[in-house]
TrEMBL record:
Cofactor(s) recorded in Swiss-Prot or TrEMBL: Mg(2+)
Domain of life: Bacteria
InterPro entries (UniProt xref): DAGK (IPR000829), DAGK_sf (IPR036945), UDPK (IPR033717)
GO biological process: phospholipid biosynthetic process
Protein's recorded name: Diacylglycerol kinase
Bound cofactor: record note: Mn(2+), Zn(2+), Cd(2+) and Co(2+) support activity to lesser extents.
């Protein structure tokens, strides 16, 4: 890299750092920052993409099966909880990595493992909810087809 490129990159990083601690001056900017977090997770986190696809399939299947509004709400909220926990897991991992840099620390491992465990438990719960709500109408469709 040339000196001018290094200076430009350094200045851009300083501008971003200046914005990092400030409160968004308006609601639109707040949504923009929030969407940037979701976009970051989607583009960098394989598990977030997997949860997004599975959640979309579960909601689509619920719509196709014409399940009740309450059941649809439960499916949607359960999928959202898994995705929210995946976002929090990503945030915790980033903060831990920022703090410990390239070194190993047992407390950093515990923080990251616990955050990942929260996502795992929510995903298992979501699977159980999907089985209870979506499996009976799917089985009825299969039986009617034969």
């Amino acid at each position: 890299m040339t000196e001018s490129t290094n200076t430009k990159t350094r200045n851009q990083n300083l501008e971003l750092r200046d914005l990092a601690w400030k409160v968004a001056p308006n609601l639109v900017l707040s949504f923009k920052y929030a969407w940037a977090g979701v976009s970051y997770a989607f583009s960098t986190q394989r598990n977030f993409r997997i949860h997004t696809v599975i959640g979309t399939l579960a909601v689509s299947l619920g719509l196709f099966l014409n399940i009740s509004a309450v059941e649809m709400a439960v499916i949607t909220l359960t999928c959202a909880i898994v995705m929210v926990l995946e976002l929090l897991n990503t945030a915790i991992e980033a903060v831990v990595d920022l703090t410990v840099k390239q070194t190993y620390h047992e407390l950093a491992k515990i923080a990251k493992d616990c955050a990942a465990g929260a996502v795992l438990l929510s995903a298992i719960a979501a699977l159980i909810v999907a089985v209870w709500i979506l499996l009976p109408p799917v089985l009825r469709l299969i039986i009617l087809a034969y």
